[in-house]
Write a sequence for this structure.
């Protein structure tokens, strides 16, 4: 093994680790005792420079390599996913520029970058052991980010719930992956798929000549445990209970990164585990004609997430909790792509997850402006925002309409492409048609609660307030860039889809 070659392939993650050490050293030495705002800006500069350097290295890396038997896979697809994670992390770093929830600036940026390293390693791995280690590195970092506002009881409570649910989910995940190792005798997803297809799918022929396929009980247990563990990470019903409290109590930059970068990385590895590791055990997701298999489980979870996420969001009066239930519903939409084979389904999943991440970051940035020092923002706090801050109000209009799937924004094309890929992915049209009809209906429902927020912003008269703080220029610039990206990717989706499809073809999807 050429260790220099290995270091070259892992250079983006190594650059972020160096940035972690640099931001800690800078804040704990040269910046100690200085003004908080200056420390935030310099810390963001160092952390942002690390993200940009890692992104630049990724874009310059040629070819594909698999030096450690699937533990570190570097190909065009993983590079694109890691680039997306780095872009979302960079925006999350910039979102902290005007925050004041902690004095531990260096530690905050260091933990955020470590979470990014975990997500990048997660995207690069097709090995069960490496997937679990990367997942825990990212998860532990996100637990800490949730609790970073020490003066907030809500943040402490949210972090404790997140940690407890996460610990249970990690146990399920580890047990499921250990069963897969027991079945295959290997931790490689490709080996797991080969052995599971050969030995765990039982074919029985009766005396009358009828052939039936059943799944070995050990593989069933592995599927259930794995789905429970990853279902928590992507916040699908009924493993979603941590999400509303975490989105509400965590510092806004942390909540935004959980809703964006974590969702992209988690859905990508979830799709890899199900589509590669459990290949041959799909069964059927057809309505009233389900054969045993994990596709039927995905169909039920997707339907439950779309229903509960959208219906529960209607009752919310706090915008962050509304966004949390909206995220649960969007996880249901994305599950439709996980249960569908083919490069178009995977491309639609990654396009949807990335554009959703940009939109979620923008929506949380607007909430941070409205919220101010309080964490109890509600719909009424947005009343008359268009009179006070027309630029960010227009940006919020773009974000919410994109989440609702209104053309020509990225959210519309993401849903259109995802639903069409799901319909084409079924052996029969009826297999997935009912799920697509449900998804379209729930998207219509979502428009109602998004319009409730926009009604407060543009129609309701503002309430008298003793003072109105100007919106920081950095925040306005960030919002304009995010809104422009949502509009551009909606009007020209090929900018992202063509590289994704080319990368998927090269990766053998």
């Amino acid at each position: 093994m050429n260790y220099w070659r290995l270091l070259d392939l892992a250079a983006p993650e190594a650059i972020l680790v160096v940035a972690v050490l640099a931001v800690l050293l800078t804040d704990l030495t040269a910046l100690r005792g200085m003004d908080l705002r200056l420390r935030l800006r310099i810390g963001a500069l160092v952390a942002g420079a690390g993200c940009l350097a890692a992104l630049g290295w990724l874009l310059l890396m040629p070819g594909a390599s698999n030096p450690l038997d699937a533990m570190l896979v570097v190909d065009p697809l993983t590079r694109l996913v890691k680039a997306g994670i780095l872009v979302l992390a960079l925006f999350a770093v910039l979102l902290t520029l005007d925050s004041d929830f902690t004095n531990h600036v260096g530690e905050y940026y260091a933990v955020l970058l470590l979470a990014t390293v975990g997500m990048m390693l997660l995207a690069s791995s097709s090995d069960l052991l490496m997937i679990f280690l990367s997942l825990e590195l990212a998860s532990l970092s996100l637990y800490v980010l949730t609790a970073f506002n020490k003066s907030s009881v809500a943040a402490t409570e949210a972090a404790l719930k997140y940690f407890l649910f996460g610990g249970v989910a990690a146990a399920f995940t580890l047990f499921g992956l250990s069963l897969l190792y027991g079945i295959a005798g290997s931790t490689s997803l490709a080996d797991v798929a080969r052995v599971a297809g050969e030995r765990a799918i039982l074919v029985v022929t009766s005396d009358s000549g009828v052939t039936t396929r059943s799944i070995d009980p050990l593989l069933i247990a592995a599927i259930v445990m794995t789905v429970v563990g990853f279902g928590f990470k992507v916040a699908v019903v009924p493993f979603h209970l941590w999400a509303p409290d975490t989105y509400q109590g965590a510092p806004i930059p942390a909540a935004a990164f959980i809703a964006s970068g974590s969702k992209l990385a988690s859905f990508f590895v979830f799709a890899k585990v199900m589509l590669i590791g459990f290949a041959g055990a799909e069964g059927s997701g057809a309505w009233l004609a389900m054969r045993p298999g994990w596709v039927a489980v995905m169909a039920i979870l997707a339907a439950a997430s779309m229903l509960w996420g959208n219906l529960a969001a209607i009752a919310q009066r706090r915008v962050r909790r509304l966004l949390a239930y909206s995220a649960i519903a969007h996880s249901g939409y994305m599950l439709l792509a996980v249960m569908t084979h083919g490069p178009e389904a995977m491309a639609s999943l990654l396009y949807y997850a990335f554009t959703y991440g940009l939109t979620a970051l923008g929506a949380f940035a607007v909430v941070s402006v409205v919220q101010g020092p309080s964490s109890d923002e509600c719909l009424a706090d947005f009343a008359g925002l268009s009179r006070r801050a027309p630029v960010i109000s227009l940006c919020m209009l773009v974000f919410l309409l994109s989440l609702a799937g209104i053309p020509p924004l990225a959210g519309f094309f993401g849903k259109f492409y995802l639903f069409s890929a799901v319909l084409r992915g079924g052996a029969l049209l009826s297999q997935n048609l009912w799920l697509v009809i449900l998804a379209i209906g729930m998207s219509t429902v979502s428009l109602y609660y998004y319009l409730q927020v926009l009604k407060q912003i543009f129609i309701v008269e503002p309430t008298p307030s003793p003072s109105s703080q100007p919106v920081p220029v950095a925040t306005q610039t960030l919002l304009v860039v995010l809104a422009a990206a949502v509009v551009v990717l909606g009007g020209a989706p090929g900018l992202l889809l063509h590289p994704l499809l080319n990368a998927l073809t090269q990766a053998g999807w």
